[in-house]
Design a protein that fits this description.
It is a single-pass type II membrane protein. It is found in: Endoplasmic reticulum membrane. This is procollagen-proline 4-dioxygenase. It comes from Rubus argutus. The protein is globular and about 80 Å long. It starts with a helix and ends in a 6-residue tail after the last strand. Strands 1-2-11-7-14-5-4-3 form an eight-stranded antiparallel beta sheet, with helices on one face. The protein has a four-stranded antiparallel beta sheet with strand order 6-12-9-10, with no helix packed on it. It has a two-stranded antiparallel sheet with strand order 8-13. The chain has two domains: about 45 residues; about 200 residues, q2cbj1_9rhob like domain (Jelly Rolls), CATH 2.60.120.620. The longest helix has about 45 residues. By secondary structure, the chain is an alpha+beta fold. The structure holds 2-acetamido-2-deoxy-beta-D-glucopyranose. The site of 2-acetamido-2-deoxy-beta-D-glucopyranose (NAG) has 3 residues, from loops.
Length: about 290
């Protein structure tokens, strides 16, 4: 009958079309695939010495619709992978936060000006009686001092990752730990009972590891989630939650609770380096705008 033959015609013409057009479709698909590949490779080569994650941002922007943005916002979408290491204290790990080249650049900048690291002294403490607590060498470096622009890119990325404004960051403290060198457990925040009234407080610390360390040199949170608090442990020991330094990786932790008081579990230290050398760039973020 009529409907039957219509159906027959329709399906046979479809088969016919499919046969005829398959090669054309394959050619067109290949063309657009290659064209897309070519265009994206242009973006990649353009951004090689940029922030490291720019090409991915551009791909993201084609996947999602972005919104109109405010005066200080921008059109880019940022994707920064991280792992929650702990809620007590609040600690996040950022694998591959910086590239190997960026790490090298920072080490080269810092190397000529390293000095033995110092401590903020409590009442009654002297350089002599605190010897051995922090045995690394270090120096301070602000993004504006780095003509290569590397620190600028890293600082911007830290600000985006923490949503703490760049203006609230101290200059980078670049540190080198050689074999046997360490930093006993301590707080980055300054307790007013010990250090006197503070006009500004450290909220969070971002550590960027600039080298792999063959053995030792972990950042440790000895009392993570209340562990090791039985009084049988020496706080100088390397224990608790330990983060192994790896070139380009970042570690963020908060010294203050959301209500602004110091988180007792944010106490942390650097285990002694056993083999190799540890380089790290630290950025302390404050609750007040910093003048440079
Ligand atoms: C601040 O927050 C912490 C953690 O939630 C809590 O233990 C502490 O009691 C709070 N302190 C004040 C003064 O609100």
């Amino acid at each position: 009958m009529r409907p039957k033959s219509l159906k027959g015609n329709w399906s046979s013409s479809l088969k016919f079309k499919a046969k005829l057009r398959l090669p054309t479709v394959v050619v067109l698909c290949s063309f657009f695939f290659l064209a897309g590949f070519f265009v994206s490779s242009l973006f990649f080569s353009q951004d090689v010495d940029g922030g490291g994650n720019r090409p991915r941002d551009r791909l993201l922007e084609t996947e999602y619709d972005t919104l109109p943005f405010g005066e200080t916002g921008d059109e880019s979408l940022t994707s920064i992978p991280f792992q929650v290491l702990s809620w007590y204290p609040r600690a996040l790990y950022f694998p591959n936060f910086a590239s190997a080249e960026q790490c090298e650049t920072i080490i080269d900048l810092a190397k000529p000006s390293l000095k033995p690291s110092t401590l903020a002294l409590r009442e009654g403490e002297t350089e002599e009686n605190t010897k051995g607590i922090r045995t690394s060498s270090g120096m301070f470096l602000s993004a504006s001092q780095d003509k290569s622009g590397t620190l600028d890119v890293i600082e911007e990325k830290i600000a985006r990752a923490t949503m703490l404004p760049r203006t609230n960051g101290e200059a980078f403290n670049v540190l080198r730990y050689e074999i046997g060198q360490k930093y006993n457990s301590h707080y980055d925040a300054f307790h007013p009972d010990e250090y006197g009234p503070q006009t500004s407080q450290r909220v969070a610390s971002f550590l960027l590891y600039l080298t792999d360390v063959e053995e030792g040199g972990e950042t440790m949170f000895p009392y993570e989630s209340g562990a090791n608090l039985d009084g049988k442990h020496d706080p100088r020991d390397c224990m608790g939650l330990r983060v192994k330094p790896r070139r380009g990786d970042g570690l963020l932790f908060y010294s203050l609770f959301p209500n602004g008081t110091i988180d007792p579990l944010s106490i942390h230290g650097s285990c002694a380096v056993i083999k190799g050398e540890k380089w790290v760039a630290t950025k302390w973020m404050r609750d007040q705008v910093q003048e440079e």
